[in-house]
Amino acid sequence: xxxxxxxxxxxxxxxxxxxxxxxxxxxxxxxxxxxxxxxxxxxxxxxxxxxxxxxxxxxxxxxxxxxxxxxxxxxxxxxxxxxxxxxxxxxxxxxxxxxxxxxxxxxxxxxxxxxxxxxxxxxxxxxxxxxxxxxxxxxxxxxxxxxxxxxxxxxxxxxxxxxxxxxxxxxxxxxxxxxxxxxxxxxxxxxxxxxxxxxxxxxxxxxxxxxxxxxxxxxxxxxxxxxxxxxxxxxxxxxxxxxxxxxxxxxxxxxxxxxxxxxxxxxxxxxxxx
Length: 274
What we know:
alpha+beta, Arc Repressor Mutant, subunit A, 3-stranded antiparallel beta sheet, 8 strands, 18% strand
């Protein structure tokens, strides 16, 4: 398909319509499924998206085994990764949505209003991207991008709340995963999560290892590492504010912890972003 140099691409996808070459290398993908279903493996986990559901894939994610039903139809919006990142309104407010999307790329929209809002959001951003003769084109497009992100965060926040309400009846592993997402910013010990689930740390590690191949302590480190990276990428926050946000009593302790988790100090990590 044409227009691969565009910052925003909108198209209707079906069994016979392919994504652009190397689209995940350059674009974040937003997909609404109108009919049929789409199966895929995302970051080594299998998923299925059905009619009425929404999918979000981060750029540079590991996506394989795409397969479609015969009646599959969807609307797809691709947003260039740098363009989206540069226009995030307040990255600290979107961390929960970001972490949730990496773990659960399929969202279950509530009703027709949600569908209309998502598709309208797609169209508004695309339309603004095509108004290149507008005297204030870049300013208007950036503003629309920020509105788009806020609307998407609203969608993700609803999904997170719905999952919180339903996960209590799930398995111990599912409940643990939800607890880590909620509390990993300040709770980084297996003992805390085991106490919440009324089991021993040893048994929690066993459950996680047999279910996912990764221990509870490794899962906690993974979530903490992702949260640290997102906070450090948000240059609106200084390092002392991030340390306080994550419950560290001193900046020096925070620096040692980041060095242990990321392999570099907070300042060194930020210098690499420049």
